[in-house]
């Protein structure tokens, strides 16, 4: 019988957290660029391509978090019927979801993301390209964001606003930025956050 202890739970959480952070970096370094290459075959303007990918990341996290919240409610209701273990019900629910990721309907989240992008006012409408071409990136981001919700505390992304003041502690400047400008023209990739602290910097383009 598997016993529960705060120390063991902490070690498992720390290991899982490290893997998810590494995965976030891998998606940024490789799968994001693959998505850029796909979109560039349809769209010449690099800014539009980068805006599409950033919105895809934001919407993927939003859709995955909503799906996780709904699933956690159902799991807690089920576990509460005969929960007698030493671990809190909340922790038991997170642990159960982490061990049964197949309960997550990621396909539905992907469809929700694409639908949201189709009506996003910051993206070209009607779109110059079917956003389904970056379905692989969206799926990976949804799965990652969902898994990040099983951590204590969960990981999330920062939601940037065009025109905000550039924060060196939160973002890197893209190579085509105006390095003298203090303002963010648009976001390329979101920063990863934990309890309001930046874990992995995002990327932005600054212009006057």
UniProtKB/TrEMBL annotation:
Pfam families: MIEAP. One of its GO terms (biological process) is mitochondrial protein catabolic process. GO terms for molecular function: lipid binding. It is found in: Cytoplasm; Mitochondrion matrix; Mitochondrion outer membrane. Residues 17-206 form the Mitochondria-eating protein C-terminal domain. Keywords: Coiled coil, Cytoplasm, Lipid-binding, Membrane, Mitochondrion, Mitochondrion outer membrane. One of its GO terms (cellular component) is mitochondrial outer membrane. InterPro entries: MIEAP, MIEAP_C. Belongs to the MIEAP family. PANTHER family: MITOCHONDRIA-EATING PROTEIN (PTHR21771:SF0), MITOCHONDRIA-EATING PROTEIN-RELATED (PTHR21771). This is Mitochondria-eating protein. It comes from Dryoscopus gambensis.
